[in-house]
Amino acid sequence: MHQDIRKSKKSKSVVEKLKKTQKVSVGKRKSSRLSDDEGLNSDELEEVSSEDDEASKKKFPVHKELKDMSMYKWESGTLYATREEFKEAVTSYAVHTGRKIKFPVVDNVRVRAKCGDGCEWFAYAVKMANEDSWQLRTVNDHHSCNTVFDIKVMKSKWLAKVFRRKVEENPKLKLGTIQSRTLRKWNVQISRAKAFRAKQIALVDINGTFREQYRRLYDYCHELLCTNPGSSVKLKVQLPPAAQTEHPDTSLDLSPQFHRIYICLKACKESFMKCRPMIGLDGCFLKTPYGGWLLVAMGWDPNDQMLPIAYAVVDAETKDSWTWFLSNLIDDIGAEKLLRSTFMSDQ
Questions:
Q1: What gap in Å lies between CA 334 and CA 270, rounded to an integer?
Q2: Taking a C-beta distance cutoff of 8 angstroms, is the pair 189, 183 a contact?
Q3: In angstroms, how far is CA 133 from the centroid of its own chain?
Q4: Mean pLDDT to the nearest integer, 224-229
Q5: Separation of alpha carbons 260 and 57, rounded Å
Q6: I need a labelling partner for 258 at 20 to 30 A (CA). Which of 44, 185, 221, 308 fits?
Q7: Whole-angstrom distance, CA of residue 323 vs CA of residue 255
Q8: CA separation for the pair 68, 73 (Å, rounded)
Q9: String of DSSP letters for 140-205
């Protein structure tokens, strides 16, 4: 064919038509079963197959969780990031609709969700080849059963994720409150033991998050000094009581614990030196699982707006903590400026 083109010396349109026919022939060869010798591993075939894969991926919808999962539309071909995401979607759907759905088959390559005895609803998802994502292959989104009050797939882990924000705001959340809110929101009854396990899982998750943040305070202080040269940052730690004994138990966590931190940025310090000599002192407790108090020294700028001078986080509002905070403030502002200043506490 190439020799005919060279001899005929026709226009470019003939060459374009020839390229189209070559693409069609490559597509036909892809559909048939070819051996390696016949060109199965050729570059042309790989390019066409990759384009087809990309086109097929774009056609599949991606899972998006709704606030009200009772309005969720199950569609064949939907992609899920992980197996747990698919199971969580089925669990949320079962809770919001009050259906007795269970997972009779769960392994590394497939998950099958089936409604109660006699119901037609089912969903079957499999793991994608060479990927971590999962795809919903077959589904029958039609129920022929009645709603129930006892949802077996509502595990403590799922409840912990739902009530995580409530537990973070109030670590002393009562178990009866979790039970009543579950009944009022989804019309599902849970036992007191399940509510207790859900709260404990949420507390472990929250405390673990706060613990990791406290461990990064050392890096945070150095970052403040790098980005704000001339600032004052003082971090004070202490050993736990178990480490202060003569023979500490090595099986326990004996790493230093957070005690206090004092921060005075250079820009705030220089701004206060040019403002009226008036300082307001106040403190408030922190609503975190580890508690603590926030101590603040405020000033007033020419626009009668609050100007933060320095702040500190301490374990409690005591005479010792206030003395430590004001001693650091004297070192930064200077005794001459503070002697001419008027102090006002608690606004």
A1: 12
A2: yes
A3: 19
A4: 94
A5: 53
A6: 308
A7: 27
A8: 11
A9: E----S---S--TT--HHHHHHHTHHHHHH-TT--HHHHHHHHHHHH-----HHHHHHHHHHHHHH
Amino acid symbol at 327? S
pTM assigned to the model: 0.54
Q: Which two tokens stand for residue 76?
A: 């064949």
Integer Cα distance of 139 and 136 in angstroms: 7
Mean pLDDT of 250-277: 90
Extents of the domains making up the chain: 60-153, 155-208, 212-241+254-345
| Closest to 141 measured CA to CA, from 95, 83, 88, 101 | 101
- Half-sphere exposure of residue 175: CA atoms within 13 angstroms, side-chain side: 13
| The amino acid at 202 | A
Encode pLDDT of 156-198 as tens digits: 999 999 999 999 888 889 999 999 999 998 888 899 999 999 9
DSSP 8-state secondary structure symbol assigned to residue 325: H
DSSP state of 62: B
Sheet holding 306-314, edge to edge: 232-238, 257-264, 306-314, 293-300, 278-285, 342-345
313-342 pLDDT per residue, tens: 999 999 999 999 999 999 999 988 888 999
CA pair distance 84, 88, nearest whole angstrom: 6
Length of the chain: 347
Return the HEC string of 259-283.
Answer: EEEEEECHHHHHHHHCCCCEEEEEE
Q: Which residue has the tokens 């693409």?
A: 23
